[in-house]
Fold this sequence. Notes:
With 324 residues, the chain is an alpha/beta fold. The protein has eleven helices and ten strands. The strands form two sheets. Strands 1-2-5-6-7-8-9-10 form an eight-stranded parallel barrel, surrounded by five helices. The model has no long low-confidence stretch (mean pLDDT 95).
Amino acid sequence: MVVIGSKIDEVRVDGRLEQVTKDLKIYEAIGLKAAEIPVHGLDAIKNGRLDRRVTAKTVDLLAGFDFKYSVHAPNPLNLMDRGDPALHAEVLRASLDFAEQIGAEVVVYHPGRFVVEEEFTVHVPVPDETEKQRLMEAEASIIGQLADEFPRVIVGMENARPYLVHSPYCYAEQISPLREQVLKIDRPNVKMTLDIGHMYMASKFYGFDCAEAAKSVVPLIVHTHVHDNFGGAIYQHQKTQTHLIPLGKGDSHMPVGWGSAPIAEILATYADGYEGIYMMELRSRYFEHVAESRDNLEQILATVSLKSKNDRTGDREETPCSGT
């Protein structure tokens, strides 16, 4: 069964549970089957601790809907933080605890950054290769420990987008190092969230084939973020969407079909047999277009399914991974 959902936007919600309720009612009305809950958007984690009162209210709220849920851990979470790594570990622990409380199967986690985006402009020194390896090992150890502590929740490590000048700020910009880290952690509940928009940007920035990259991690993909863009990397300070879109730049998080990401070619590598959620991750400026995005994604998945069926019966046709 194909399960398509959409994220609850943390900026749009801004700590207001009543806004979550309103948005979920809209998702219910248009027939979505899943929603991704941003634990940070609910103010459910405060200084590394899970707010049990907010969590209990959220549990009651979500029980009123028949959705499958995933959780997005706070974006600033960085298990490679060199200032207060213990606090960041507690934030991930609280995120997993929250997911368990609301019955979510997957927590989306942004892998560690050697230099975080917020520090790009303050000239923080980039770690040398020895320090990078130490940070990778520290991250793997923390995730392994927390995965053991919460065996019913899957940590979905998400591939990252690139930036001009500062990349590689994160090892997960490319699929191969992320795959190696997941395999190194070696837990049944540590897998990958494949972000299609990020993959497209990285493929253009680093020059790899996105379909081949996706094929290399098919057994690890447990969750999918689906959104569109034109693949153009930007500098970290470039934020204004109305300035970026005319030039085809940035991590646009547009509705499916609005950009040039080769979504069909990527999904064709693993949709057959995939049991996870296709979670649309659109910016809040596109909220009114969630249904259109869902319709476009359903059409892509139907085409991919038909092609897969034809392939099994011998009517094969190669489709390259090539965004326009």
